[in-house]
Design goal:
This protein has a 9-stranded mixed β-sheet, with helices on one face. The chain has 453 residues and is α/β, with parallel strands linked by helices. The protein has helices at residues 16-31, 49-62, 69-78, 89-99, 116-125, 144-155, 173-183, 214-218, 221-239, 248-260, 391-401, 410-420, and strands at residues 7-11, 39-43, 79-83, 105-109, 133-137, 163-166, 197-205, 270-275, 293-298, 310-315, 322-329, 348-354, 358-366, 374-382, 431-433. It is globular, with a radius of gyration of 24 Å. The chain folds into 2 domains: 7-137, Rossmann fold; 170-445, Dihydrodipicolinate Reductase, domain 2, CATH 3.30.360. The protein is built from 12 helices and 15 strands.
Length: 453
Amino acid sequence: MTPAADALVLFGISGDLARKKLFSALYGLAAAARLDMPVVGVAASDWDDAVLRAAARESLEEAGEEIDEAVFTRLSDRLCYVAGDYQDPSTYAAIVERLGDRARPVFYLAIPPALFDDVVEGLASVGLNAHGRVVLEKPFGRDSASAAELNEIIHRHFPEERVFRIDHFLGKEAVQNLMIFRFSNTILEPIWNRHYVQQVQITMAEDFGVESRGSFYDSVGALRDVVQNHLLQVMALLAMEPPVSDHPDALRDERVKVLRAIPALSPAAIVRGQYAGYRDEEGVATDSGTETFVAVHLEIDSWRWAGVPWIIRAGKGLARTVTEAVVEFKQPPRPLFADPLCRPGPNRLTFRTKPDDQIVLSMQSKVPGAEMVAGPVDLHLDHHRPQGREAYDRLIDDALRGDPALFARQDGVIEAWRIVEPVLTGQSAPQHYRRGGWGPQQADTFVDGWITR
């Protein structure tokens, strides 16, 4: 790990991400006494220090935070603001002045990728790249070529070991528990392979539409928005081999190995859908062919997983909001103690991150009564989120400490784009589906009962 930072500079501090996530994360770090450094907000908005601090309070109030005034004062005292154009050299001179003698700043770029070039060049022009590191928000490009170009831009002035690419899914408590649950329980290892696992299903379903993000969403779609990054990362965590240590690169090496073993998608392995009424959303083209639902069938060409289907589905306007990964095990060789009218279902291990954090093991047990008949029973582990440790709290803290374990690495990003690239363009029009259902009927041909409804 690189040395701990001594300052945090947030580009895009007046934007939507800061209002919805970053101010709350900073408050959580202040409450945990983990933010003992200046926090410099940078944006083009005509703000000053007082307006920035007022915006921070307003953001916390909108989030329903019960504000502890002593904590907020600690945060507020650290906040300061630089107003300026990202292409104007005077903006970076002002940042230098605000930082004073701080030598190891973290630069968080909560701005569109098109502006990254201007910012990294500006930071380098005043020497702020020498010992600093940079945190990037997704999207990390739109395809392999643009991702490589983005890497080249960043690497002109920041080496890979000082580049932190945020995928907030990896900061979620329940997602991290995938690694703990897998590698801290020896009973799983003998069955975590193609001999016992029938299939794995990863789902990110949302019961709402694109809301105010119509213009952005119409330019990306479900495949780019959540599959290429969030859900492939979850797949990698479920499928990875045990790392040789808890060193950050040992963990990231194993995630990348999984991605390298996944063949690129073919058109026959994907179903795209668009919910009825999507083209009427604000910011969406009236003839849009953007998918709001996608289902893909993937496999992993490795000794452990060869032949096991991995199904990823993601969509908006569906029956309910749920994010989960379901590992389905093979049926017993003979259906002993089975009701003749209803064969027992397979064992399943479900990792759920939304709407609540829990792990559920679905087993078979005797149905109470006179007959020797098996019936399903679920064993629940409720996983309560600790106060003040949301995804962005953890990831910003890790970036400040210089721990890259939960951040995407350049080679992993390129591999993820390789997997989805053959189906990014040139596809047929998406299948329409009604809101409140489970997507296009064609998607059910991949596997029946694809979500624990």
